[in-house]
């Protein structure tokens, strides 16, 4: 049931909104503000369920490390896929020539050209273009998605300035293809999609070689290019960051989705069926799939139940940018339905999945005004509700609870990987620095999230943290993919 009305608490300039009644047998002519007591049972319970005190975080870190070991032992041994990436050699700085990066993994895809000039000249020229992927292509067919990508790639290459970029004679244009979904790699330049994440559900792809899909589309568009490396965005970040800092051992993505990739010793990978057990290789953990000892609430369960990848990527659904806003919306909705918030009516927008996004939470948490003006206007503009000061404060508390849990859990994941690396290499013990390269909009743009993540690192690592650097390496995954295309060039 939906009603149009003007709320008495709304100032005349604000006008009226569409609301739906909380109870279907409720005939409402005007808004009545809630007289609820100052305690808020839904919020209190939610805060309790989301709590991650240090001993709890320690358990999470240990459980992630256990699942890492299990996944390294046998395929499917644990929640984490621990994918072999076939990237044994990270960029050295000697790479030369013209290479391309194609990055598909979220709402945008990016094309980049990089002219590499070797040790001395490094990146001589680079050009990139970001194109947003129409929503319908994320749930359309393989042909539509890859056809779109190939057409954009073709127009990017057509615009190339010959003076700045130079392809050596006899060479094809080579691509590092960053495909940021779980892929079972079969070689450095091939791999099959295991499953979609982050709201993608393109038909005809699961179990298919993603490089073959791209090749097919490029051929149809008359593009004579070759994929020399298929990489995850975590691997790209690690490779791109390593180009300028040889202590980088981990690449972490905290954006729409989340993941971590790291340098592992081959002797610590029982499932690696290669003769050589010396040296290192990059492992794509796909840590988003972790599901044990997580502080899952009813809101997480309900959101998961409605997701296209139900039961999967539960850690990702608690810590990454795609989901934080939606969890908050679900909590607010229940607070509203139980009369703890926003008077007697359920705003229509509050009932709309994914209407509240993580960037809105961030905006609200940055509000330092006494009367939480920004919170008020976000709630007004996005959810079409008029919130009084007490309600605004509660909304901020919900945001903070979700963001704190997310940031702290992400921190526990990083600790698990750092400790695994230390177990194998004793780097920190020997005074070596270990660098974690971080990327993704959530990490970049949400200071409170970053702070909570940092708190978890401090609590779990203590003094050891002095050997660790957490470095924001913005947008290096494209450079990393182009560098890996160079490392794996067939010419
Ligand atoms: C995917 C990963 C990816 C991450 C960040 C997750 O949903 O499973 O492969 O690295 O998002 O983009």
From TrEMBL:
It holds the Pfam family Hexokinase_2. The keyword Protein biosynthesis does not apply. The keyword ATP-binding applies. GO terms for biological process: glucose metabolic process; glycolytic process; intracellular glucose homeostasis. Its EC number is 2.7.1.-. InterPro entries: Hexokinase, Hexokinase_BS, Hexokinase_C, Hexokinase_N. Residues 250-486 form the Hexokinase C-terminal domain. One of its GO terms (cellular component) is cytosol. One of its GO terms (molecular function) is D-glucose binding. Residues 43-243 form the Hexokinase N-terminal domain. Pathway: Carbohydrate metabolism; hexose metabolism; Carbohydrate degradation; glycolysis; D-glyceraldehyde 3-phosphate and glycerone phosphate from D-glucose: step 1/4. Keywords: ATP-binding, Glycolysis, Kinase, Nucleotide-binding, Transferase. Transmembrane segments: none annotated. Belongs to the hexokinase family. This is Phosphotransferase. It comes from Arabidopsis suecica. The lineage of its organism: Eukaryota, Viridiplantae, Streptophyta, Embryophyta, Tracheophyta.
């Amino acid at each position: 049931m939906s009603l149009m009305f003007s709320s008495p608490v709304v100032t005349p300039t604000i006008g009226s909104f569409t609301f739906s009644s909380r109870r279907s047998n409720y005939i409402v002519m005007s808004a009545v503000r809630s007289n609820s007591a100052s305690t808020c049972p839904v919020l209190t319970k939610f805060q309790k369920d989301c709590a991650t005190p240090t001993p709890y975080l320690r358990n999470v870190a240990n459980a992630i490390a256990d699942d890492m070991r299990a996944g390294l032992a046998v395929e499917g041994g644990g929640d984490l896929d621990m994918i072999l990436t076939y990237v044994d050699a990270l960029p050295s700085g000697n790479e030369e020539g013209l290479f391309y990066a194609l990055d598909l993994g979220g709402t945008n895809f990016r094309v980049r050209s990089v002219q590499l000039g070797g040790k001395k000249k490094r990146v001589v020229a680079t050009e990139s273009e970001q194109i947003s992927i129409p929503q319908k292509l994320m749930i359309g067919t393989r042909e539509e998605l890859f056809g779109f990508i190939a057409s954009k790639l073709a127009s990017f290459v057509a615009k190339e300035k010959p003076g700045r970029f130079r392809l050596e004679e006899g060479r094809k244009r080579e691509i590092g293809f960053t495909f940021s979904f779980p892929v079972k790699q079969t070689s450095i330049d091939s791999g099959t999609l295991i499953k979609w994440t982050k709201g993608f559900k393109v038909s005809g792809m699961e179990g298919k070689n993603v490089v073959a899909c791209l090749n097919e589309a490029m051929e149809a568009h008359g593009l004579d290019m070759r994929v020399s490396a298929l990489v995850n965005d975590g691997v790209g970040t690690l490779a791109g960051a390593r180009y300028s800092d040889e202590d980088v051992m981990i690449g972490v993505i905290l954006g729409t989705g989340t993941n971590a990739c790291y340098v592992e010793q081959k002797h610590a990978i029982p499932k690696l069926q290669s003769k050589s057990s010396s040296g290192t290789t990059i492992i794509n953990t796909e840590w988003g799939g972790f599901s044990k000892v997580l502080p899952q609430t009813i809101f997480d369960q309900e959101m998961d139940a409605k997701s296209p990848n139900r039961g999967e990527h539960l850690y990702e659904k608690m810590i990454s940018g795609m989901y934080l806003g939606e969890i908050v919306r679900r909590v607010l909705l229940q607070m509203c339905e139980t009369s703890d918030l926003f008077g007697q009516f359920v705003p229509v927008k509050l009932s709309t999945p994914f209407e509240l996004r993580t960037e809105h939470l961030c905006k609200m948490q940055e509000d330092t005004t006494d009367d939480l003006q920004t919170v008020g206007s976000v709630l007004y503009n996005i959810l079409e509700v008029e919130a009084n000061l007490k309600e605004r404060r509660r909304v901020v508390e919900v945001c903070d609870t979700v963001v704190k849990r997310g940031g702290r859990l992400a921190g526990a994941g990083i600790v698990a990987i750092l400790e695994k690396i230390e177990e194998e290499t004793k780097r920190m013990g020997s005074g070596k620095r270990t660098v974690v390269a971080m990327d993704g909009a959530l990490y970049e743009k949400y200071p409170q999230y970053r702070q909570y993540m940092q708190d978890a690192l401090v609590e779990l690592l203590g003094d050891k943290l002095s050997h660790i650097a957490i470095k924001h390496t913005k947008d290096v995954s494209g450079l990393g993919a182009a560098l890996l295309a160079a490392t794996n060039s067939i010419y």
